Amino acid sequence: MFKAKLESAKEFKKVVDTMATLLDEICLQVNEEGVRAAAMDPSHVALLSLNIPRIAFEDYQADEHEIGIELEAFKKIMNRAKAKDKLILELDEERNRLNVIFENQGKRKFSLSLLDLSGATTKVPELEYHNVITIKGDALKEALKDADLISDHVIMRASPYEFKIEAKGDLNDFTAEFSSEDDAIISIEGEEEVKSAFNLEYLLDMVKGVSKGDIVKLYLGNDMPLKMEYSLAGCELMFLLAPRIEE
Amino acid sequence: QEKQLTLDNFF
C-alpha cells in the first residue's frame, strides 16, 4: 500500500512543475522511509533526483512500490491545486492508478493511470567537488534571467571568495558578481578557482520552483557537471547539468 | 567551437 498526505498541494505543485519541465516521466520509488526518484532528461544533459523523507508528510504509510508517472498529466492535475488544499497521494493497486486527491472543503479525486517504468531507475553518480556556493535562490534566479537577455549559455566561475555568472553575446555582455560579504551569499567554500559553462535554458528550468526565501547549493568544478540542491516544502531536489566545453 | 556534453561522459 501507499498513502501519503502533504500539508500543501500548492507547494508540491512547484516540485511537479520543476520535474515536468525537465522530464517526460518519472518512476517514484516508495518505501517506509519516504519517496525517491531519479531520472535523466531525454537528451541526457540533465539529471533530476527527488527525495521526500517521510517526515515531510503529514501522514505516511507505504510498502515498497514503483510508481511510474507521466509528468505532463500529473502537472495538469497539480495545476488545479488551490491555496488551502491538502494533497493525498494514494496507490490503487487493483486499477493500477495513482489517486491524486485535493482535500479542503471536500475531496476532489483524480485517478492518474500509471506507466510501467520498472527497471528504468537511474543511478546517481557520486562526483567530487571542491567548490560549494550557498546562495539565496532569488538572487541566483534573477542573475540567470539577466544572463538570458544576452546569451543562451553562461560561464560560472568560483574562487574562495567570489562567485560569478557571465554571459557573452555578440555585442553585449553581462556579469553577476557575488562576494562572500554580499547578502545573497550564505557561504562560499573552495580552495581553488574553477569555471564551467552551462546551457541557460536548462538552468532556468532547474530553478523554476525556486522562490524568495529558498536557499540553493551549487557545486562547481572545472568543465564538470553542475550539481544544484534545494528544498521545496521538505522535498529535497538535486540536479546535475552537463557542461558545455570548447573543442 | 563549443560542444554540449552529456552526463554519460561523466558516468
From the structure above, extract its key features.
heterodimer; A: alpha+beta; DNA Polymerase III, Chain A, domain 2; Proliferating Cell Nuclear Antigen; 2 domains; 9-stranded antiparallel sheet; 5-stranded antiparallel sheet; about 15% helix; B: about 10 residues; mainly beta; rod-shaped
Give a description of the structure:
The complex is a heterodimer of chains A (247) and B (11). With 247 residues, chain A is an alpha+beta fold. Chain A contains four helices and 19 strands. The longest helix of chain A has 14 residues, at 9-22. The model of chain A has no long low-confidence stretch (mean pLDDT 95). The radius of gyration of chain B is 8 Å and the shape is rod-shaped. Classes of the chains: A alpha+beta (247), B mainly beta (11). Chain A binds chain B through residues 40, 43-47, 123, 125, 127, 153, 197, 199, 224-225, 240, 242-247, and chain B through 1-11. Strand 19 of chain A pairs antiparallel with strand 1 of chain B.
Main sheet record of chain A: 9 strands, antiparallel
Order of helices and strands of chain B: E
Encode the helix/strand succession of chain A as letters. Answer: EHEEEEEHEEEEHEEEEEHEEEE
CATH architecture of the largest domain in chain A: Roll
Task: Outline the low-pLDDT stretches of chain B.
Answer: none
Distance between the termini of chain B: 24 Å
Structural class category of chain B: mainly beta
The percentage helix of chain B is: under 10%
Function (chain A): Sliding clamp subunit that acts as a moving platform for DNA processing. Responsible for tethering the catalytic subunit of DNA polymerase and other proteins to DNA during high-speed replication.
Protein name (chain A): DNA polymerase sliding clamp
Domain Proliferating cell nuclear antigen PCNA C-terminal (chain A): 123-243
Organism (chain A): Methanocaldococcus infernus (strain DSM 11812 / JCM 15783 / ME)
